[in-house]
Design a protein that fits this description.
- The structure holds two protein chains of two kinds.
- By secondary structure, chain A is mostly helical.
- Chain A has helices spanning 2-27, 31-65, 75-81, 83-87, 100-131, 133-147, 155-162, 165-190, 194-203, 207-245, 250-259, 263-291.
- The two termini of chain A are 56 Å apart.
- Chain B is an alpha/beta fold.
- Chain B is 36% helix and 24% strand.
- Chain B has eight helices and ten strands.
- Chain B has helices at 46-54, 93-104, 111-124, 140-153, 170-187, 198-204, 233-236, 240-256, and strands at residues 4-15, 18-30, 35-39, 61-66, 69-71, 80-81, 158-162, 190-195, 207-211, 219-224.
- Chain B is globular, with a radius of gyration of 19 Å.
- Classes of the chains: A mainly alpha, B alpha/beta.
- The interface between A and B is medium-sized, with 20 and 25 residues.
- Bound molecules: adenosine-5'-triphosphate and magnesium ion.
- Residues 46-47, 83, 162 of chain B line the site of magnesium ion (MG).
Chain lengths: 298, 263
């Protein structure tokens, strides 16, 4: 029984051995092949497709808008018209002639005030509502309706109330972004496990301690979801509000460019708005990640 | 003199028009330093009874007296070790214990003394090495140890344990049982523990309270465990008193109060 098995083993291993002798030195791994190449490959796998797609889009756009009768400017036209806006965000040549970076910063300042207020008020109101079943039942349908009102619809009311453009714009941001913050905070508070409430009760935490030590950390993932939706809505609202209220912001810049037929400038402004909105979203997501790292129950 | 007295406690849960009577006329007195176990089939109302003593649930009738004073709200004098550890996941092991210590000793201990007291209690349960870890980074047995340290650190008059070893494997469980026995020996706490493990009840308790099946669970029988302390798990395995007590509880649970499936 043993003999044939041994024989086939020997027969099979002999040619294999000679093959490995040749291939081993070639496959010897180096730092280059184990670390750097896969790293580069991972980076390029994420970077190359968007770059190709972007190039394609610009190409098609260029083709479509190159004809003499085209209503919109082509990328090359935009570059020629608005080169100063694109390459230098922070120039100042006159009171109304400043770089888009400055305008974006002015808008961001308004967003910071409006969204900051909305965050504080939204979390507090959400916490109170989440603690009371009755308030939740009563207010939730109202909030769900108010949530869907578009930002600009608040503007006339806000202008009538404040009689000034800057506070009106801030109020529009506030009122647009507060609903998701309230609703998500309330849901987060509702979902605090009874266990945590029992711990707080045995330790006899008072209301303020309970808020800071149990409610906020426990509901943090929900609260940050609300904040993330809120910051997106704020940025939507600021552009719309500034188009109507005037001033220095990026929204007014678009309106102004439209009125003086500087279409190329509008495209550049759109790119700025999109990029900043994207960065705002990422910043909140990053902070959320930092803040809720330990909060997952095990 | 009675230390803790559960006096004619009834508990009825009402939801809408439906109401279920979970506990019916529970009477029990506990002496200072005594170790009491409550044993009964799942769903009979053990946790409910413990929560009433803890003040987390209110009795429908009757009440609980601690040192002749009625207690009906939760407090650190009746610290609870919960069935599923209930550590706050965003705090470190140290901070979980510190939370209670800061509240209970806010006026009587300085900052440095509180820090020392937290470390002392973590040391009692041999968890000092993991004090800066989060609950998700330590094992189930370690979490339960921290839960015990958190409760002990509040210097409770009565320590309430709700199936503290229920979710642990047999080896870890035995190890923790020995720890709790040693702590009881050392600190002399009054302890009320829920369990459905007969060996655990006999090994640890001075008295075993056996509950009948719900609904309307009552105390069926109270058994004294006259075994001297300190007790050694291995020596007891052949001890006649131990075996007799064990037999008695088993008979109660599996003959007189057989578990009714899907009641
Ligand atoms: N908040 C509540 N509302 C309604 N019924 C409840 C409530 N809490 C508990 N009960 C009921 O009371 C009974 C006893 O529950 P309890 O949790 O005290 O049981 P237990 O003895 O601790 O069980 P286990 O050993 O499984 O933990 C159960 O039938 C349960 O359905
Ligand atoms: Mg229970």
């Amino acid at each position: 029984m043993n003999m044939p098995v041994l024989k086939t083993n020997l027969a099979a291993s002999a040619p294999m051995e000679s093959a490995t002798v040749v291939s081993l030195p070639m496959a010897k791994p180096s730092y280059m092949t184990t670390r750097i190449l896969p790293g580069l490959r991972a980076v390029s796998a994420r970077v190359v497709p968007p770059v190709i797609m972007l190039a394609l889009i610009f190409g098609v756009w260029q083709l479509l808008c190159m004809k003499p009768g085209a209503t919109l400017p082509s990328p090359s036209r935009i570059w020629a018209d608005a080169k100063d806006l694109i390459i230098d965000p922070f120039f100042i040549t006159g009171p109304q002639d400043i770089g888009l970076g400055w305008r974006v910063l002015t808008s961001l300042q308004r967003v910071a005030i409006g969204f900051g207020l909305a965050s504080v008020v939204g979390i507090l109101v959400g916490a109170v509502i989440g603690q009371s079943i009755w308030a939740m039942r009563g207010l939730d349908p109202i909030f769900q309706v108010l949530r869907t009102v578009p930002p600009l619809a608040w503007l006339p009311i806000s202008l009538a109330a404040f009689r000034d453009s800057n506070p009106s714009a801030i109020f529009v941001i506030f009122i647009t972004s507060i609903w998701p913050i309230i609703i998500n905070t309330a849901v987060g508070i509702r979902n605090i496990p009874q266990d945590y409430r029992n711990v707080a009760a045995v330790v006899q935490l008072n209301q303020v301690e309970f808020f800071w030590k149990i409610m906020i950390p426990s509901a943090a993932p929900y609260i940050f979801t609300g904040l993330r939706i809120g910051i997106g809505l704020s940025w939507l609202a600021i552009v719309a509000a500034e188009m109507l209220t005037g001033g220095v912001g990026i929204g007014f810049f678009i309106w102004d460019a439209w009125n003086s037929s500087r279409l190329s400038d509008i495209f550049v402004a759109l790119a700025y708005i999109g990029t900043v909105g994207f960065m705002l979203d990422r910043i909140v997501a990053f902070v959320a990640n930092l803040a809720t790292r330990g909060a997952q129950a095990s | 003199m009675t230390y803790l007295k559960i006096d004619h406690v009834d508990k009825v849960f009402t939801r809408g028009s439906a109401s279920t009577e979970v506990l019916k006329d529970i009477n029990l007195t506990v002496e200072k330093g005594e170790y009491i176990s409550i044993i009964g089939h799942s769903g009979c109302g053990k946790s409910t009874l413990l929560n009433i003593v803890a003040g987390l649930t209110n009795a429908t009738q009757g009440g609980v007296l601690l040192e002749d004073r009625e207690v009906n709200s939760p407090g650190p004098d009746r610290a609870v070790v919960f069935q599923n550890h209930s550590l706050l996941p965003w705090l470190t092991v140290y901070d979980n214990v510190r939370l209670g210590v800061d509240k209970v000793f806010a006026k009587t201990k300085t900052r440095a003394e509180r820090d020392e007291w937290v470390l002392y209690n973590l040391n009692l349960v041999q968890m000092t090495h993991a004090k800066d870890k989060r609950p998700s980074e330590v094992s189930g047995g370690m979490k339960q140890r921290v839960g015990i340290a958190r409760a002990l650190a509040m210097e409770p008059k009565v320590l309430l344990l709700d199936e503290p070893f229920g979710a642990l494997d047999a080896l870890t469980r035995a190890h923790l049982q020995d720890s709790v026995m040693a702590l009881h020996q050392k600190l002399g706490n009054t302890i009320m523990m829920i369990t459905h493990d007969v060996d655990e009840a006999v090994l640890l308790s001075d008295r075993i309270v056996m509950m009948t099946n719900g609904p309307s669970a009552k105390i069926g029988e109270v058994l004294d465990v006259p075994l001297p302390r300190p007790r050694k798990r291995l020596e007891l395995a052949s001890n006649t008193t131990y075996l007799k007590c064990r037999q008695r509880v088993l008979e109660f649970l599996y003959e007189r109060q057989r578990f009714v499936e899907a009641a």
